[in-house]
């Protein structure tokens, strides 16, 4: 079984001094985003998965956290 990585907050360099309150959120995915997730899953492509997280999901999470 793979060893779990350190908790995200321990490596929360994305916060960089900002006072971001973490909370549950819902993000909306467009059809192309959903298709990309399914493609990544089928291809089992870790590089594309990381790229998608950084370029799409992380941006949406950060934006949602800043709105409130």
Description:
The protein is an all-alpha fold and 68 residues long. The protein has a domain of 40 residues. The protein contains 2 helices and no strands. Helix 1 runs antiparallel to helix 2. It is elongated and about 35 Å long.
User: Which parts are unreliable, with pLDDT below 50 for 5 consecutive residues or more?
Assistant: none
Radius of gyration: 14 Å
Number of helices: 2
What is the percentage of strand-forming residues? under 5%
Category by helix and strand content? mainly alpha
Task: Describe what is shown at a glance.
This protein has 2 helices and no strands. It has 68 residues and is mostly helical.
Core attributes:
single chain; mainly alpha; 68 residues; 2 helices; 0% strand
Task: Describe how the helices and strands are arranged.
Elements: H1 31-43, H2 46-67
Helix pairs in contact: 1-2
